Amino acid sequence: MDLSIVIPLYNEEESLPELITWIKQVLNDKYTYEIIMVDDGSSDKSWNVISNLAKQNNEIKAIRFQRNYGKSAALFKGFEKAQGNVIITMDADLQDSPEEIPELYRLITKEDYDVISGWKKKRYDPFIKRFTSKFYNWTARRVTKIHLHDFNCGLKAYKKQVIKSIEVYGEMHRYIPVLAKRAGFKKIGEKVVQHQERKYGVTKFGLERFINGFLDLMSITFMTKFGRRPMHFFGVFGTLMFFIGGSVAIWLLSEKIYYSVKNIAIRDVTSQPLFYLALVAIIIGVQLFLAGFLGELITRNSTDRNKYLVREEI
Predict the structure, then answer these.
(1) Span between the terminal Cα atoms of the chain, in Å
(2) In the 8-state DSSP scheme, what is residue 167?
(3) For 233, how many CA atoms within 13 A lie in the half-sphere containing its CB?
(4) Which residues neighbour 80 within 8 Å (Cβ) at sequence distance 6 or greater?
(5) For residue 92, which of 198, 7, 206, 194 has the smallest C-alpha distance?
(6) Of the four, 143, 210, 232, 295, which is 20 to 30 A from 63 by CA?
(7) Residue 105 contacts by C-beta under 8 Å, 6 or more apart in sequence?
């Protein structure tokens, strides 16, 4: 099979028929393909619309979650089902244009890219969303060293090997290119894509998504560098804190012994603030070291974290 088109959605009942029609017109029997729609616990009639579309189109496969888990969970389940040699993800709100699919497919198959990320160079979003997105993407480029202009663009294309080699969880859908690079797929490209104005429904963007984006960026950065070796992070800082605290404590005790031998008056060690700072440093050092040790144990005994309750499937 040439293509798998994975479409996560939440409360998009009005846009779905038009989206499927548009995709079919673009592909027009030029490719063998499947459309995998993942209903992330919609509270409207999206699943009824999907069910009707699936009866009319054999290419459609669908998954319905029992509740809303988030876009990463929807993509993870869609990736699990995908059988195409090239996997394309896109949003269901008609803001991603299916007209981009043939060129994305060509870049993966002919130019041998592992990942192609869309870049909505001209956007039809509110100012606050555009501003926060630019700032967020600038920060993400600096931290991840992957030079993409739009990490959060829903329109992306992947080789099958890529999506079968990575684990998307939490809110990590924004950082699939980072996860791909971490897995060894380093040929990551970018394509300017057309961005449509929202035709139906309302945007799901909120301030919490902007905040979560930065928290996820910190998380993925840590996981990329220390995910398989947490002791290298916690152990280094723990050892450093323990060494500093221990050195200060030894110095204070040595000073006390020296002045006692010389019969010189000096305050008790326990009456000096520096002693308690040293004690705190020792305790923090031990805790950091133990955190690294426990992290190593968890890493080596981790089990599948992606357990999502599927309600129905077509």
Answers:
(1) 19
(2) -
(3) 14
(4) none
(5) 7
(6) 210
(7) 2, 3, 31, 86, 88, 157
